[in-house]
Amino acid sequence: MGSFEAKKLAGWALAAMMAFAPAASAKNKAPNSDAAQPQDSIEVVGHIPPTNHPVTNFVSTQHYSSYYLYAEHESGREITLIDVTRTNRPLVLADVPYSGLGSSGSLVAVAGTAALVSSEMSDLPQAPPQSLKIMDFSDPQHPKVAREFTGVTAVGRDNQRGLVFVANPEGIWILQRHFAEDPDVEAAYAKQVLYDH
Fold first, then answer.
1. pLDDT in tens, 10-22
2. Could you tell me which of 130, 122, 124 has the C-alpha nearest to residue 153?
3. Any idea where the domains of the chain sit in the sequence?
4. What letter does residue 126 receive in the DSSP assignment?
5. Quick one: which of 46, 106, 167, 197 is 20 to 30 A from 78 by CA?
């Protein structure tokens, strides 16, 4: 066999090994029930220390590319304006007393940097403090409590960003919902990137 033919045979052998290596590797990686599977989760991503008065209501809004959270305190005492654009670093912008608003009422609606404030307090009785639990149902036969918040005085949501706001005596907690990536979709994407481009 000549030098040219030997090089050609070596090239074909190398190409065959490269073509079948991913398939062989995939066969060796049999599904393992002990392997960690991607999990859905609800995690604490931010926290603000407690304020002087308990929070009784949250209203979230957006102004340009910034996201704000209005936290209303009990007895119509004040509103805390919080920038939650960076959820891991929430920034308290101001504590605004209702006296500065010419009212001792409550928030009705917000739109960016504008708020609609009623002239009277809500007649609804305040709900007693409650407990919220982040549950892990990844093993339905053995559900687990991942985290618990006690003495909860207010809960709010920003569904667009998957955020949940919880107020209790320990402060304001920012939670975020995370959905696990589907392994089949990730594998199909990896295959497309590797072979179709």
1. 444 444 444 444 4
2. 130
3. 41-178
4. P
5. 46
